[in-house]
Design brief:
single chain, 306 residues, alpha+beta, Aminopeptidase, 29% helix, globular
Length: 306
């Protein structure tokens, strides 16, 4: 069986999703989102989507690029996944090698990758010179059968809206997202400073459900939010939940996330997922309060180039 690696084509979208759902079922992925991700990528990201193909069958994928919105230059990323029933055929190795060559040509000095916390996955990464860094958890909540905390009475001056209410002018949500993203624990911190790029890649993303994205507004100012990504069928994921610095410690993120989860269940979604840095104690506590349980762990790995 011959394995080749090539660039992603729109016709690969269904196969890409099948690989990702088999290898990483805790993420919400759709064919439309994959095509959109590549088409809307910022030029400085030097983005490539790679696929591994064996005798006409797509068995592996890789997302590759430069962390262009990081204050530290030269940081690349490569997230590689192979169908669990198609491992051991060299697809992962070929994807990683092709990705590293691309990143080196684009000036990357380091490559970051997420690796599932399983002996075989970690051994694969370490054999190729990647060293473990920080862990993160995937969490799952049964929206169909599990209870949700009841809706609480809103404090004076606080109201709950949806992202759809900001359709005419989403800039306040951009500013909210930028401030919370800057404080998110990460080996490759991002600074959202390009409003047009945010519109193109986040606001207009087909997976963002604006009706289910809840925003806590304090005296007319967006203060906290919980972004909802969905597959349009049964799966819901919290893409980001955060609060502006001036409003932290008041439970506003809980209010926003609870509102979003109630909306999602009413809309027929049955499985809710989210992800947390393992050191983000406050957000892990919030998710435990909702009833989320850890279902998998990834470990960030890094390899220096050159």
């Amino acid at each position: 069986m011959t394995v080749i690696v090539r660039d992603f084509l729109p016709a690969d979208a269904e196969g890409w999703v099948r690989v990702r759902r088999a290898a990483l079922p805790y993420m919400v992925t759709t064919p439309e989102s994959v095509v959109f991700e590549l088409a809307s990528a910022h030029p400085d990201k030097r983005s490539r989507l790679l696929v591994a193909e064996a005798d006409g069958e797509l068995i592996g994928t890789a997302q590759v690029g430069i962390v262009h919105d990081s204050p530290e230059p030269g940081q690349g990323f490569c997230n590689t996944y192979t169908r669990p029933d198609r491992t051991g055929r060299g697809a992962g190795s070929l994807l990683v090698r092709t990705a590293e060559e691309h990143l080196a040509q684009e000036g990357a000095r380091a490559v970051y990758t997420w690796v599932l916390d399983a002996p075989s996955n970690r051994a694969f990464a370490e054999k190729r010179g990647y060293a473990p860094s920080r862990p993160a958890h995937f969490l799952h909540l049964d929206l169909a059968g599990g209870p949700l905390p009841p809706r609480q009475e809103l404090p004076p001056g606080v109201e709950l809206r949806t992202a759809a209410d900001f359709a005419d002018d989403p800039r306040p949500l951009f500013e909210l997202d930028a401030e919370t993203t800057a404080d998110e624990p990460s080996d490759t911190p991002a600074q959202l400073s390009d409003y047009e790029d945010w519109l193109n890649n986040i606001w207009r993303a087909p997976g963002l459900d604006r009706e289910l994205t809840s925003v806590a507004v304090v005296d007319g100012e967006p203060a906290a939010f919980s972004a909802a990504q969905t597959d349009g069928l049964t799966r819901y994921m919290s893409g980001m939940t955060g609060t502006r610095r001036a409003y932290r410690g008041r439970g506003l993120a809980k209010l926003a996330k609870n509102d979003s989860l109630h909306r999602a269940r009413a809309a027929g979604y049955t499985d809710a997922y989210t992800g947390n840095d393992a050191d983000n104690g406050p957000m892990l506590a919030v998710n435990r309060w909702f009833g989320y349980e850890i279902c998998a762990t990834e470990v960030r790995h890094v390899r220096k180039l050159g």
